[in-house]
Amino acid sequence: MTPVIEVEQLVREFKSPSGGSMQAVAGVDLAVNEGEVYGFLGPNGAGKTTLVRMLVTLLRPSSGTARVAGFDIVNEPGSVRSAIGVTLQEAALDPLMTGFELLQLQATLHGLRKGAASAKADELLERVDLVRAKDARLGTYSGGMTRRLDLAMSLIHEPKVLFLDEPTTGLDPISRKVLWDEVRALNHEGTTVFLTTQYLEEADALADRVGIIADGKLVAEDTPENLKADIGAARLEVTINDPASHAKAREILGGHGRLLKPRSGVSFFLQLPPGDTQLAPYVIELDQAGVTVDRVDLVEPSLDDVFLLKTGHHLDADAADAAPTPVP
């Protein structure tokens, strides 16, 4: 099967504040098959949006090649744009227009006559559950409504490949679920979806395969199930509220295996040996050393564990994004 997205050694450089250059995307190779939902996972600043902007022809690569829907992103940008739909993080919508007016206008720009454009607008408003808001000004739309309308605009020309760049960032759980359901429906109908996200549960729920990017490089790629299976063992999470006991606890737990960087509110993560599911021996040993354990949990492998293992830190969905200057 020929991949619908093919990326080979793609690089994008930006000027750094010091006057030198930095690689936001540093030689990425990946392939996305037709009909697949590919989850591209990483924190802000990792290179996700930069890669997407290159693939949708909004940003020229510094080097490397990529083909989308069979077309070269540098030499055939018009053909790429005709084959894709794009929903970027920030939707530029006129707050004085209604949802129906905006979709009708976009359909007209895609070459549909007035009657067909109106019919397409109504069809898409129904699809994204915005029929009741079709005549409301966009300035009155909530964040979830805006993202659904932006999704509808990307579907006007029935694209072969749909790029969704962090489509649910900042949305409430209900709005997020509505978008998830629509992504599943589109994929079921045959649309290939390239989904960038900061949310582990989103990648786990939607993606057939996941690529993890850190510092501009693809550090892991596989199905969510296989990535988690590679971790193999469960993880011990130990909370010790007394800072004076941390050094002793670190010495004891570190003697049993690799200590991982903890999240806020958890003092220690210990990667357990395969098959080890016992909590009591660790608690007893800490107690005998005078260390009071406030909470202990046994946690099965997750995509967060995969991300931690591959990058050395947890995925922080609230990380700030830098805005470097492009190299000419």
Explain the overall architecture.
With 328 residues, the protein is α/β, with parallel strands linked by helices. It is 34% helix and 25% strand. The chain has helices at residues 48-55, 77-83, 99-109, 114-127, 143-154, 173-188, 200-206, 224-231, 246-254, 280-288, 303-311, and strands spanning 5-15, 21-32, 37-41, 63-68, 71-72, 84-87, 161-165, 192-197, 209-214, 217-222, 235-239, 259-260, 268-271, 295-299, 325-326. A hairpin with a 5-residue loop joins β1 (5-15) and β2. α3 packs across α4 (114-127) and α8 packs across α11. The longest helix has 16 residues, at 173-188. The chain is elongated and about 80 Å long. Residues 317-328 have low confidence and may be disordered.
